[in-house]
């Protein structure tokens, strides 16, 4: 139940983030809906594909589609001066989505007895795969691969679940809050991973 | 039988459109064939993936591969002054492909008892998914997400089929002609969906 | 056994090539690992998808993941003056990977009694699909579609296997060496396929 609330928050955050990227790129209304839906559901679809759940399991999430579509509609109708606050609120919601989706993705993969590497990948892809596809379709360099620390927190959630570090509902909620907080701190204080560049 | 003709026309149109994008981007011969084939068959592959048909069902369409490969070869050999007419003819053929593929994709998904949302998505992806992958591989912003009204007509076809608005072969042919016509009008009169942009 | 060595060499070469592209694009450490892993395993994942093997078969390759991760770590730690030699050595290793993966992909598809076209596609995708995804995620025009002759050699390997031109281990090793050599020559002498461009 509590968990469902986080998933709803995450779905809304991801749908809105896709819609806003489409608006920034001057895509049309159809493009805004498509990019919003792909950002919200793309991560789960890729995760299903990689861990061996039929991708078509997507279609059982009827209410989530409705929630995502309504969120996108709301963003389209929002006056510009309300949208201005998105970068602040958006990152807060997005952090909740990242953490909730990462935890769920990892639990999913672990429930199928996949090895540690698959659990971590499932956490990362469920948490951030939608944003990756969003960036590719908007012709942007994927934020996941170069901006503030993001995917690493999803990987950390996966790792902790894979080694049995969080199992009871209470432990999972604590893990969720911990990951959410780390992501918010990363954004707020512009934490970056080191880079190693090369030129030939 | 009539239906097969539309599919053939659509396959040819999509294969040629991929080949021409590759030629515009100065890809080599191998790239021209690959992009042509991906545009012709990519939409169906993604649809299969999302609605739960094995993607490998692709390989049963032997003759269509041959047709697509021959079309691409023809385009490569065409003199430049014939190719000049492509933007006009190409959009006509492409409209037939969009409508034929959208109707087929929707029927496919409906035959598997998927919910309305899946039927609409299957129509959109089968009709326009190949063009989406084509644009990503050519490093272009997807035309589907921002140019004249395109994907919406595929979605409309899916919606009409999902609510039982076209079931007999005669009704389906009428739907097909209706969608083709709407797409041709969109292109001819540069119909655009509204945009909602945002800047931060 | 011999075969395993080639696969290991190919995995290392592909992982390093992805990591180096990420470093060139100034992606962060997380991005470097992700792009390296996707380049090493993406081709096999796409091939599995298209020929009907569960994509989740990926997770059975535990040691290869470790090898790829260690290779990426090594590249990150390498001093700049050693990395300078990568373009030369890299192409040599990459040619081994292309040939080894193409042969394996083709054998895989043939073992499932797929038609000739699927065997050729499996060879091309296993050999070069990882590089294709790498380029899309780095926002580059795919090298596969326009640079020196590359994918054609994978297709040739697939074709020879599909028509029964190489079946015994000895024949397969000869085919592997032949394809590796053709790719090295293509790079060394800048062989290009003809292009056919068009402007409207």
Walk me through the structure.
Three copies of one chain form a homotrimer. With 200 residues, the first copy, chain A, is mostly helical. Chain A contains eight helices and no strands. In chain A, helix 5 runs parallel beside helix 7 and helix 5 runs antiparallel to helix 8. Chain A is globular. Chains A and B meet through helix 1, helix 2 and helix 3 of A and helix 2, helix 6 and helix 7 of B.
Layout of SSEs?
3 copies of one chain form a homotrimer.
Chain A: H1 2-24, H2 29-51, H3 62-77, H4 80-83, H5 86-111, H6 116-137, H7 151-162, H8 169-188
Helix pairs in contact in A: 1-2, 1-3, 1-5, 1-6, 2-3, 2-6, 5-6, 5-7, 5-8, 6-7, 7-8
Subcellular location (chains A, B, C): Cell membrane
Transmembrane segments (chains A, B, C): 6-23, 30-50, 62-79, 91-109, 115-137, 149-166, 172-191
Protein name (chains A, B, C): Glycine transporter domain-containing protein
How many strands appear in the DSSP assignment of chain A?
Answer: 0
Give the low-pLDDT segments of chain A. none
Evaluate the radius of gyration of chain A: 16 Å
Distance between the termini of chain A: 54 Å
Mean pLDDT of chain A: 90
Overall geometry of chain A:
globular
Q: Structural class of the secondary elements of chain A?
A: mainly alpha
What count of domains describes the coordinates of chain A?
1
Order of helices and strands of chain A: HHHHHHHH
The percent range for helix content of chain A is over 70%
Give the count of helical stretches of chain A: 8
- Strand portion of chain A: under 5%
Summarize the largest interface: chains and residue counts: A-B, 33 and 33 residues
Q: What does the largest sheet of chain A look like?
A: none
For this entry, what is the oligomeric state of its chains? homotrimer
């Amino acid at each position: 139940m509590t968990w469902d609330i986080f998933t709803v928050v995450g779905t809304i955050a991801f749908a809105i983030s896709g819609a806003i990227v489409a608006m920034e790129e001057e895509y049309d209304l159809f493009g805004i809906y498509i990019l919003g839906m792909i950002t919200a559901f793309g991560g789960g679809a890729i995760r299903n594909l990689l861990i061996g759940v039929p991708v078509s399991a997507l279609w059982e999430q009827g209410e989530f589609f409705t929630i995502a579509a309504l969120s996108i509609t709301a963003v389209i109708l929002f006056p510009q001066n309300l949208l201005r606050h998105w970068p602040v609120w958006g990152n807060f919601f997005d952090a909740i989505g990242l953490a909730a989706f990462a935890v769920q993705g990892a639990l999913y993969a672990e429930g199928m007895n996949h090895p540690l590497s698959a659990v971590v990948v499932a956490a990362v892809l469920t948490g951030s795969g939608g944003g990756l596809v969003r960036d590719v379709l908007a012709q942007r360099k994927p934020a996941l691969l170069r901006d503030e620390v993001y995917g690493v927190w999803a990987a950390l959630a996966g790792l902790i679940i894979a080694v049995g570090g969080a199992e009871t509902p209470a432990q999972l909620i604590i893990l969720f809050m911990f990951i959410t907080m780390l992501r918010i701190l990363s954004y707020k204080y512009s934490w970056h991973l080191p880079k190693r560049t090369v030129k030939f």
